[in-house]
Each structure stands twice: as C-alpha cells, then as structure tokens.
Specification:
11 strands; three-stranded antiparallel sheet; elongated; 18 helices; binds oxidized coenzyme A; alpha/beta; six-stranded parallel sheet
Length: about 425
C-alpha cells in the first residue's frame, strides 16, 4: 500500500523519548527513517531499564519501530563525510541533542543549508533559541516544571507535582511532527527547506493554556469561581497565583475523583464524575435524588458551589456498592460525562484498544513479543503497520550502499571505526 510519506528520507539524529516518538510516527506514515547512532553504544534507551539481558530495552523498542539503524561516529573525519552525503540526499534531519552539539560536530544550520537548501531541519531543545535558559539540558520533569504543569498539578496544600504523562517528551515529539509536515507543505510550494525549532517548555506551556486563562482571571477579579472544588472559593481566599488543581476539572464543569466499591484494596477503584450544568436533572435522577432538581438550594451551579463536596460525598455513598464499571454503565444511560479510572494493566488487556490499533503486539527478532502504543491517529485510507525496531547498526552497510559506497569503501569505514 502506498503511504503518504513514501519517498521522504529522514536522518534521525534523535535519542531518549521526545524526538524518537516524532520520527517513529513519521516512519509509520511511510518515511524512510534512518536512525544514526554512535557505534558500540547507540541511543541510551537501548540499555536503560532492560528487562531481558542482551535485548534492547522496551524503552527503545517502543519508540523506534519501523526505522533503520546506521552506526556512525560523527566525530571522525570519515563519519562527517558520510553524514555530509546523507544530508545532501535526505529530505529532513530531526535532532534533539543538547544545546550546541550539532555546531560542535560541524553541522550548524548554516552548513546544512549549504549542503542541501531543501533540507528541513527539526530541532528540539529544552528552551527556545535566545531564551535565558537556552544552554540547559532538559528531561521530562524539568520541562514540566518550566512549562507550568508542575505548579498547577497536585493538591493545593502539597508540593508542585509532575504528571506521569510525557508532556515534555512525547508531547513535544507529536507537536514537532506538525511543524515538520507544515514545513514539508511549504517546501512543496517554495522549493526551500527551513529549520523547525521546538522547545519542551513551549510544548508543555501549550497544554497549560487554560492556566494562563485562569491567571488572568485571578489577576482581574482576585478569585477563581467555577472551580468550586478549590477550598479557596467560596470558603477561603486565593493568593496571586493559580493554585494546584487537585482533581478539579480544567473547565467550567465541577468534577472530582470518586471512590467506588473496592477502593480500600484496589488503588484504581474510582470514577471521574463531572457535574455538567445541563445534566443536573439526569444526575439527580440517576442518584435517586429527584428533589434536588427543583430545590433552589441545588438547582443552579451557583447554588451548588458551596456544597459541592457534600454533593460529591452523596454520590460516593451511592457508589459504595457499585464497581467502577457498574457505575459507569448506569451513569452512561443518563448521559453523564464520567469514566472509570483505568490502570495500564487494564488498558493493555483492553479488546477495544487492540481492535483500534491503539495498543499493538509486535514481534521483535531478539526480544520476542511485546506490546507497544500504536498510532493514536486513525485514517480512513491508510493502514498502519507497526513494525519492530532495528538492532544497533542493523542497516549500516545497506544505508552506506544506498549512498553509493562500494563494498571496499564500506570495509574501510569499518576498519576506521567510523561506522
Ligand atoms: N557520534 C559521535 N558522537 C555523538 C554521536 C555520534 N553518532 N551522537 C551523539 N554524539 C555526541 C555528541 O556529539 C555530544 O558530544 P559533545 O558534547 O562532545 O559535543 C555527546 O554525544 C552528548 O550529546 P548530548 O548533549 O545530546 O547528550 P547528553 O546525554 O549529555 O544529554 C539530553 C542528553 C537529553 C539531556 C540532551 O541531549 C538534551 O538536553 N537534549 C535536548 C532536549 C531533549 O530532547 N531532552 C530529552 C527529551 S526525552 O527525555
């Protein structure tokens, strides 16, 4: 089957999680992604958190499927020559080295443009160019702290908290793919490549948009209503910064995490319950509290604000003898936005996610079968085959031959330890 990115060749100078997630997505959609790795070592995630001795760790295999692997020492003269040739014959380079690494390697953006003016160069750093922190190396949690996620996550009386979701890593990679494809569209019009830069701070900040909304509301009126779960309103006072949200919902609908049957022993026996304004009547019906629908003390969102936790306590009482699944099965009939809290164990076994290709089983030549996350985006006219990741240097000779190196030249590059 023809894939949308067939014929697009990408130099994958990526490591850890942010950019590998991006190039893996592009590989699923048809690009020829050549992962360039240091001989003998490769991407650090190959050996991090290993569960099978001698096999690439899941950390690597789950982020580098459908790619080819070329080992290349770009600090040797021969290695630089090979990279130069690759730049001339590729469409894109994607990299997330530490600040200044590519310049030190001798491949500044200016040099890359000289070699190939059509090149699209996508670059992820912790902070944007010219930022006062631009020299910092950054990992996931650092980005979450720098982009507001940590300051607004957790409970108001606890420390800033990071999310388990890879807001700085995979999220940056997913955004980057939008930038790359946009630059590709522009190149089709202008014939010119360009540099696409993205910072992990900006990627996190982009997801914290509603907190900037709230900061401005707070600056203006001194409190945040429509967040009745905050003890600061209406029962207390706010400081001048947006408080951590606990389990409050981000929008104008109060929501909370509620215990279901079995919560004492099962850490995930909870549902998230949202009190959508216009769903109040069905909620009262579902809970067997029809009198609340017409009681002025409960009828409106405003009236409910000061007793929202009492309302949640009543719902918890109703949930006491229901599992999270039973509860959702009842509430869905009343059109109430809610969901069970699902553990990764449950998600991994979910027939729905297997059917949709969101969780896929891959057979790897060294480690055997494992599960990975498939394409989160589904297409009506594109079948995505999630493949195995390459072993270190698996395609070195093949890629060099593609570049026009003879068997003799390739042997010399091996002898010089350039590949
Ligand atoms: N051949 C020869 N040398 C190579 C090479 C190759 N194929 N690939 C990498 N190297 C060298 C680089 O040239 C660099 O050497 P110098 O520092 O001497 O110039 C060296 O490896 C280290 O590169 P690095 O700074 O990228 O790696 P690090 O482990 O010190 O830092 C990280 C890792 C992730 C903190 C840093 O790369 C970074 O901040 N990246 C940008 C933000 C990012 O993507 N963070 C990770 C997100 S996923 O959690």
């Amino acid at each position: 089957m023809t894939k949308p990115l067939d014929g697009i060749r990408i130099i994958d100078f990526t490591h850890v999680q942010a950019d590998p997630a991006c190039t893996q997505l592009l590989a699923w959609y048809g690009a020829d992604v050549i992962k360039v790795e240091r001989p003998g070592a490769g991407d650090v995630t190959r050996s991090q958190l290993r569960d099978i001795p001698g096999a690439d760790a899941l950390y690597f295999t789950m982020l580098n499927g459908n790619k080819r692997s070329l080992t290349l020492d770009t600090k040797t003269q021969e290695g630089k020559e090979v990279l130069g040739k690759m730049i001339k014959t590729s469409d894109m380079m994607v990299e997330n080295f530490g600040p200044g690494v590519l310049d030190r390697m001798g491949f500044s953006w200016a040099r890359i443009q000289e070699l190939n003016p059509k090149m699209i160069m996508a670059s992820v750093k912790g902070f944007s160019d010219g930022h006062s922190y631009e020299d910092l190396k950054v990992y996931e949690n650092v980005a979450q702290c720098a982009g507001d996620a940590a300051s607004t996550t957790g409970f108001w009386d606890g420390p800033p908290t990071v999310s388990a979701a890879a807001l700085g890593d995979s999220n940056t990679g997913m955004h980057l793919a939008i930038g790359i494809l946009t630059a590709l569209m522009q190149r089709q019009k202008t014939g010119k490549g360009q540099k696409v830069s993205y910072s992990m701070q900006d990627a996190v900040l982009n997801l914290c948009r509603v907190k900037l909304r709230d900061q401005q509301r707070l600056d203006k009126i001194g409190y945040l209503e429509k967040y009745p779960q905050y003890p600061q309103y209406p029962h207390g006072t706010f400081s001048d910064v947006v408080p951590r949200g606990g389990n409050a919902s981000g929008g104008g609908q109060p929501g909370w995490m509620l215990k279901c049957k079995g919560w004492e022993t099962d850490p995930n026996a909870y549902i998230y319950f949202t009190i959508q304004g216009h769903a109040w009547k069905p909620i009262t019906k579902a809970l067997g509290k029809p009198e609340w629908a017409t009681d002025p003390a409960y009828m409106t969102a405003e009236a409910r604000q000061d007793k929202i936790f009492d309302i949640f306590a009543t719902i918890e009482e109703w949930l006491k003898d229901k599992t999270k699944y039973e509860a959702v099965d009842i509430l869905r009939k009343f059109d109430i936005p809610c969901a069970p809290v699902l553990s990764m164990k449950e998600l991994a076994a979910s027939p729905d996610l297997r059917k949709s290709g969101s969780i896929v089983e891959v057979d790897h030549k060294v480690r055997g079968k494992y599960l990975t996350i498939g394409s989160p985006i589904k297409f009506s006219d594109l079948e995505i085959e999630v493949g195995q990741s390459p072993v270190l240097g698996e395609h070195t000779d093949e890629v060099l031959a593609d570049l026009g190196y003879s068997a003799d030249d390739i042997a010399k590059l091996h002898t010089a330890k350039a590949v």
